[in-house]
Design brief:
The structure is a single chain. This protein is of the alpha+beta class. It has 2 domains: about 30 residues; about 140 residues, Beta Barrel (L,D-transpeptidase catalytic domain-like), CATH 2.40.440. It is about 20% helix and about 35% strand. The chain has a 5-stranded mixed beta sheet with strand order 4-3-2-11-6, covered by helices on one side. The protein has a 4-stranded mixed beta sheet with strand order 7-8-9-10. A two-stranded antiparallel ribbon has the order 1-5. The longest helix has 28 residues. It is globular, with a radius of gyration of 20 Å. It comes from Streptomyces violaceorubidus. This is Secreted protein.
Length: about 180
């Protein structure tokens, strides 16, 4: 009986470990495609923290598992955006300055746009392309009218992912209402 009970306990322990591993993996890759956005958000790393491309890939390489079709891809770990056209062709890629609130990885769509407004950090911005919301702020891409891309105050929740003015213009032309935005780790 003792060896039979030990075998059952060992089997249950292994099953629990496998389940934890699977759930941990699912949490690390975000919501599966088709489930839509979630409302959870994470905080960006401390301003000035260097980020290196993951998995030894070239920093400009489109992340695998970023979907298909025409879309905007945003990597919160790499602080980089890809504008992807037909045939999975990268039309443009560029670095961005992250907001203090990151969107959760998943699939979103552009829900609103503004030509010229004041950002959640008080800075005048143009070419605002919004696609998510979390922690009471709208999350979207924008370019400061004065061309600055300074890191935001880490103690203030902001949703503006800042681009240069040239990159903001390209985003504005590409990311119209309804365009898919895929956020990857």
């Amino acid at each position: 009986m003792a060896s039979s009970s030990a075998g059952i306990v060992t089997g249950l322990t292994m099953a629990a470990l496998v389940t934890i591993g699977v759930l941990g993996h699912q949490a690390s890759v975000g919501a599966p495609a088709g489930l839509g956005p979630t409302t959870r958000a994470t905080t960006s790393p401390a301003p000035g923290a260097a980020k290196a491309p993951r998995d030894g890939r070239h920093p400009d390489a489109l992340p695998t598992m970023s979907g298909t079709g025409e879309r905007v891809v945003y990597s919160v770990d790499d602080d980089r955006v890809w504008l992807v056209g037909p045939g999975n062709e990268v039309r443009r890629t560029f670095e961005v300055t992250p907001s203090t609130v990151d969107p959760t990885p998943g699939a979103y769509t552009v829900t609103s746009r503004s030509k010229l407004v004041t950002g959640s950090d008080g800075i005048p911005v143009e070419h605002v392309v919004r696609f998510a919301g979390a922690q009471g702020v709208a999350i979207g891409f924008s370019a400061a009218v004065d061309g600055s891309t300074a890191r935001p105050d880490p103690d203030r929740p902001t949703g503006g992912i800042r681009e240069t003015r040239a990159d903001g213009d390209a985003m504005w032309k590409f990311a119209t209402i309804g365009r898919q935005v895929v956020v990857v780790p």
